[in-house]
Automatic annotation (TrEMBL), chain A:
Keywords: Repeat, WD repeat. Transmembrane segments: none annotated. Belongs to the phosphatase 2A regulatory subunit B family. It comes from the Eukaryota. This is Serine/threonine-protein phosphatase 2A 55 kDa regulatory subunit B. The keyword DNA repair does not apply. GO terms for cellular component: protein phosphatase type 2A complex. The gene is PPP2R2B. The keyword Repeat applies. InterPro entries: PP2A_PR55, PP2A_PR55_CS, WD40/YVTN_repeat-like_dom_sf, WD40_repeat_dom_sf, WD40_rpt. PANTHER family: PROTEIN PHOSPHATASE PP2A REGULATORY SUBUNIT B (PTHR11871). One of its GO terms (molecular function) is protein phosphatase regulator activity.
């Protein structure tokens, strides 16, 4: 099936500070990631495709279309595979995309499905050689006896073409499903994490990887905890963290030993006895962990909260933000329909002052760490109409419902925002809502 | 590896790019969630019977696939993703509605006795685990979380029973340990003395009426542990370490044992599990013992009304699958009522009959 993307534009104005784009694709978006400059935005979908958007240069002709994102490249990253040995289908869904920092004219990114990580090179071509001696312009070989003189081929300009080529395939290293990949700050290595193991790779070597974390017990019956996310420290290439299904985070130092089964730091918050329920453990499972850009903090997302931890304090987070605490009284229903297992991601803004995460009903939340203010916004087509307002939403918990508020019982739990991304330096956010991608830009005058 | 498909939004060569500039979202429809209530998922409102409970369809897609048995080629894609295999889909949708009603009652009702809530959660956990068992590749993360919840409940029940004096049949009921969320006044009863047994039963769903029942309880715990163990062992996917030993059962694609097989004896299972630990650990899910067979629920809950388990909630592979038409009858039976025989020990308090009626109404869906 062809991937179809259609775009709609929201024009911002003084009254309505947000301008936005709404792109609708034919497949469910499963990951969103800006590159290190914010010039490119990559999305992966359930069909194994990667779509890269590039920000337009601001033009004087259309000042209101300030730096819009247009499709730059689309390619099929992963195909469905069938593991004949285990009689299992391997999904082609892209679980994560991570960019490498740009080192030359080409762009490099890692994309992964459940089992295989691939390094893709995305490059532009705007010139092509003309005037070969041994073949003509169509590529057919010339009859050598017809060649009477030699010439030097010249490069002539051509229409810009963006090519994506797979440069490396890192396969067969994971028995369980890969949930995270993270590029190291040395730009030479990266790690991939599945439910029970974390492997360290060198970009140049595809037939070997180092296993640096292995929490698989000798007896599977003793298994009580799995790895849910992992990330390298942004500056210290020897340090990484991984989160678990029990709500704990372990920080490891690869210099300490080859197998980092013993953590350097262990972050866990004691349980609040007043909030104890049958589902306490399930909702404590961490679905995402992210270092701040500064490297001083980590942020974790569990089912109901986002927490910010100081690397120097292991016994509790320094900040806790309630994402949708009104769901606490609905946990049994959410358990019954499996929503309680939804894995929400969380992101920092460029200055680490605001954090953002998704919720249900196509809501997403932002928390300002300095002012302690928070806002709930909705990613919907209404917001993308011209002159529409991206207005704050509110969920009414009980009692009287004011106009414009939505009651908990009216929330649509099939519309969940699991994946969001924040531009590394500007107030531009990308929000994936099922098969729609919303890009909002804060018009700071 | 050759060059990947060259594609671009700008300057693509000959054919026009299919995506740029098109105003119509073709094929980009929102997911439609099937459900009896039609559009959208809605939470049950407290005290209001709503035909469309908060729900999502059972979503094995992404959590496991039904591999076509014997298929050599690539699997059919979208159509097979939502099937659980072996034609169980319709059954589960009946079950889903019932469970949704129960879970909403759990959430909205404050006076539900704690042991009943716990039993409900336990049922849901076991049913989920059983559902995952039927998938070729269950989700390890979810299975671990659910197994931990089951263990936690089991531990709690074990502690309760150990705090209960053995001679409860004297009618001496100790004060129930305080549980979060329990309104202890709701449990205390003013009943004729003959029902003091019932009172203690309220507080302790496993209340032993004698040493015999106590030992049954101990057996149950072990069985539950071994059940959980076997689930987790099943999740130990085959790793390319060493080839399996001679204990290999026939073939990797051997389908799960048919429901007509009687439940294995608990003792045999335990020995099987322990004796063939490593070997079983390296096998796929499809040819290892079903945890429910290990559990032999009939035996464990002998002293408890097992009609809850006889329903569509968790029929295969224990029992022969029942026709969907019997589902409504089953749901009536699933909820123990106070006037059932004395062998039923599901803890209920008479003052909560109205709650039960309410729940039953939801279940029956009338």
């Amino acid at each position: 099936e062809a991937l179809v993307i259609s775009t709609a534009h929201l024009e911002g104005s003084e009254k309505h500070p947000y301008s936005g784009q709404h792109l609708s694709t034919s497949d469910i978006i499963s990951t969103v990631e800006f590159n290190h400059t914010g010039e490119l935005l990559a999305t992966g979908d359930k069909g194994g495709r990667v779509v890269i958007f590039q920000r337009e240069q601001e033009s004087k002709n259309q000042p209101h279309r300030r730096g819009e994102y247009n499709v730059y490249s689309t390619f099929q990253s992963h195909e469905p595979e069938f593991d004949y040995l285990k009689s299992l289908e391997i999904e082609e869904k892209i679980n994560k995309i991570r960019w490498l920092p740009q080192q030359n004219a080409a762009y490099f990114l890692l994309s992964t499905n459940d089992k295989t990580v691939k390094l893709w090179k995305v490059s532009e071509r705007d010139k092509r050689p003309e005037g070969y001696n041994l073949k003509d312009e169509d590529g057919r070989l010339r009859d050598p006896s017809m060649i009477t003189m030699l010439r030097v081929p010249v490069l002539r300009p051509m229409d810009l073409m963006v090519e994506a080529t797979p440069r490396r395939v890192f396969a067969n290293a994971h028995t369980y499903h890969i949930n995270s990949i993270s590029v190291n700050s040395d730009y030479e290595t990266y790690m991939s994490a599945d439910d029970l193991r974390i492997n360290l790779w060198n970009f140049e070597i595809t037939n070997q990887s180092f296993n640096i974390v292995d929490i698989k017990p000798a007896n599977m019956e003793e298994l009580t905890e799995v790895i849910t996310a992992a990330e390298f420290h942004p500056h210290h290439c020897n340090t990484f963290v991984y989160s678990s299904s029990k709500g704990t985070i372990r920080l490891c130092d690869m210099r300490a030993s080859a197998l980092c089964d013993r953590h350097s730091k262990f972050f866990e918050e004691p349980e609040d006895p007043s909030n104890r329920s049958f589902f306490s453990e399930i909702i404590s499972s961490i679905s995402d962990v992210k270092f701040s850009h500064s490297g001083r903090y980590i942020m974790t997302r569990d089912y109901l909260t986002v927490k910010v931890w100081d690397l120097n304090m292991e016994n509790r987070p320094i900040e806790t933000y309630q994402v949708h605490d009104y769901l606490r009284s609905k946990l049994c229903s959410l358990y019954e329909n499996d929503c309680i297992f939804d894995k929400f991601e969380c992101v920092w803004n460029g200055s680490d002052s605001v954090i953002m995460t998704g919720s249900y009903n196509n809501f997403f939340r932002m928390f300002d760490r300095n002012t302690k203010r928070d806002v709930t916004l909705e990613a919907s087509r209404e917001n993308s109409k011209p002159r529409a307002i991206l207005k704050p939403r509110k969920v009414c918990v009980g009692g009287k419902r004011r106009k414009d508020e939505i009651s908990v019982d009216s929330l649509d739990f099939s519309k969940k925002i699991l994946h969001t991304a924040w531009h590394p330096s500007e107030n531009i956010i990308a929000v994936a809502a099922t098969n729609n991608l919303y890009i909002f830009q804060d018009k700071v005058n | 590896m050759g060059a990947g498909p060259a594609a671009g939004g700008r300057g693509a060569r000959s054919s026009p790019s299919p995506w740029a500039g098109r105003g119509v979202a073709c094929g980009g429809e929102e997911l439609r969630w099937p459900g009896p209530g039609g559009g959208g998922s809605r939470l049950l409102l407290e005290g209001v019977r709503v035909p469309a409970p908060l729900r999502e369809p059972a979503r094995p897609a992404g959590e496991g696939r039904a591999a076509c048995e014997g298929a050599g080629g690539p699997l059919a894609r979208s159509s097979s993703r939502f099937m659980l295999g072996r034609g169980l889909k319709r059954k589960l949708s009946d079950y889903e509605e019932n469970m949704a009603g129960l879970s909403s009652a759990f959430d909205s009702s404050r006076n539900l006795p704690y042991p009943l809530k716990r039993q409900l959660v336990l049922n849901m956990c076991l049913t989920k685990l059983q559902t995952y068992k039927m998938l070729v590749e269950p989700n390890l993360h979810r299975s671990v979380l659910i197994a931990n919840t089951v263990r936690q409940i089991q531990e709690e029940m074990r502690q309760e029973s150990s705090q209960q004096p053995i001679n409860v049949c004297n009618g001496i009921a100790p004060n129930p340990p305080s549980y979060p969320g329990i309104d202890s006044s709701g449990i205390s009863l003013h009943l004729p003395s003959g029902s003091s047994q019932q009172e203690s039963n309220c507080c302790n769903s496993w209340s032993a009426e004698g040493p015999i029942e106590n030992s049954l309880l101990m057996v149950s715990d072990d069985d539950m542990s071994s059940a959980i163990s076997s689930i987790l062992k099943d999740l130990d996917f085959m790793e390319d370490i060493s080839p399996p030993t001679s204990l290999v059962p026939a073939g990797d694609d051997e389908p799960p044992k048919s429901p007509e097989n009687t439940c294995l004896k608990l003792e045999d299972d335990r020995q099987d599990l322990k004796g063939a630990e490593c070997v079983f650990g390296s096998f796929e899910i499809s040819n290892s013992t079903s945890y429910l067979k290990d559990l032999a629920i009939d035996d464990i809950f002998e002293d408890i009304d097992t009609s809850m388990y006889d329903s569509d909630f968790c029929s295969p592979p224990l029992m022969a699958p029942r026709p969907p038409s019997a589902a409504t009858e089953e749901t009536l039976k699933t909820f123990p009522s106070c006037n059932s025989s004395s062998t039923n020990n599901i803890p209920i308090c008479r003052t909560d009959l109205s709650e039960l009626d309410h729940i039953m109404e939801i279940l029956v869906g009338s």
